[in-house]
């Protein structure tokens, strides 16, 4: 019961605790998807406003969290999603990159197959204007999921 009394008299600390819990849940459970991150930032800002004495009273504080959450979401949603969708470029970690393999059928920018280690793999040409004919030696330049990007040797 002491903690309840503490938070009823120290509103700013309650909002800081809410922000901390929201950050932890966002990072550990949701994987930086956004909603709790924006709420946590709004809670921190509201706590600062309470400490500065600019707002007081539960109604005003909760309204401020709601308004700040909406504003922060509007401002940061698109940049945050763009940051998440950067992707970091091509995956160069596969041991298949650099291997020479024969094509199985024609390989275009959109589809095709190669044979590697006795298995036919989905492949596509690494360059837009290059079509690789059947049974042509290729080199794997990148891996995107289960599709090998290849170019003619």
Q: How would you describe this structure to a colleague?
A:
The protein is α+β, with helices and mostly antiparallel strands. Helix 2 runs antiparallel to helix 3 and helix 3 (35-51) crosses helix 4. The chain has a 5-stranded mixed sheet, with no helix packed on it. The longest helix is centred in the middle third of the chain and has 27 residues, at 58-84. It has 4 helices and 5 strands, in the order ααααβββββ.
**Largest beta-sheet details:** 5 strands, mixed
Q: What is the H-and-E element order?
A: HHHHEEEEE
Total count of helical runs of at least 4 residues: 4
Radius of gyration: 27 Å
Give start-end ranges of low-pLDDT stretches: none
- The fraction of residues in strands falls at 15-25%
Number of strands: 5
Quick structural summary:
The chain has 153 residues and is of the alpha+beta class.
In terms of topology, how is this protein built?
Layout (H helix, E strand, L loop, with lengths): L1 H8 L1 H20 L4 H17 L6 H27 L15 E3 L10 E4 L2 E7 L11 E8 L2 E6 L1
Parallel strand pairs: 3-5
Antiparallel strand pairs: 1-4, 2-3, 4-5
Task: Name some characteristics of this structure.
single chain; 153 residues; alpha+beta; 5 strands
